[in-house]
Amino acid sequence: MIGIQDKKLISRANLYLPRHGLGTGLLGEQTEKTAICTIQTAFSQGISFFDTAPLYGSGKSEQYLGHALSVVKRSNFLIASKVGRLVQADGSCKFDFSRDGVMRSLEQSLKRLKMDYVDILHIHDPDHHYKQALDEAYPVLAELRAQGVVKVIGVGMNQWQMLRNFAENADFDCFLLAGRYTLLEQTALPFLNLCAARQIAVILGGVFNSGILASDLNQGAHYNYHDAPRDILEKAHKLAASCHDMGLSLKAAALHFPYLHKAVSSVVVGATTPEEVLDNLQNLTIDVPAEFWNTLKIKGLLQEGVPTSR
Prior knowledge:
- This protein is an alpha/beta fold.
- The chain has ten helices and 14 strands.
- It has an eight-stranded parallel beta barrel with strand order 3-4-5-8-9-10-11-14, surrounded by four helices.
- Helix 1 packs across helix 2, helix 1 packs parallel to helix 9 and helix 3 crosses helix 4.
């Protein structure tokens, strides 16, 4: 069972990170009233870590966070934001991993957040910009960390292979990985093992694989932002059946699974309404017996080598 007040030390930065955070990727698409109420509900329930980015709602996610948390003492919560995309006047976002782009992005984020600093700053989705991100963006983040402007620097992506390259070629404190280490898919296991060995913290997002692990598995279930293919649906149904046999919901199992790996410092879970926040927190209070994970491994539903106990 994960306690909402539990924290884990990012040893490289001497920062205690809450084990559970709110992902705001979809809040920028909600009405301001709904978004602010969702954030305030999360904070009132003990969530004190919020992940955002200029890309989310073309800056609206950051604006909503700034509004919702404006009455809260700044030291009582942590904010992670990202650089690599600049919000344009027309609302579009432009890739920019240059030194100037990184500084402008952070300046704009702080203005939208109405804050003096962010705790964690990630390079965001540099899939097709690896060299510029490493040669230009990373040195700026390293300088900002040395100056104390940010406490922790990382990279946030939907793939682990390039994150491994960043781990091997630069000095990052943490990485944000979405969708590649979940109850349904553990392809990133070698990367997490590398991070554990090097004491690099991992923050996981996308633990529902864009919806399928939080759905009723009908034909409209989504996986990686598209309709789920047949083989993925079949595996999800097998996981759901095993959950049912143990008296668990698929969603609860999906929320608990990522915490089994020692490299995982925090899991950020998206929500678009206060009700979703409360439902996620309720699922985290469920006790998942250790034999459940071992049963999944015996059935071949978890990758070989995946840890099944904390």
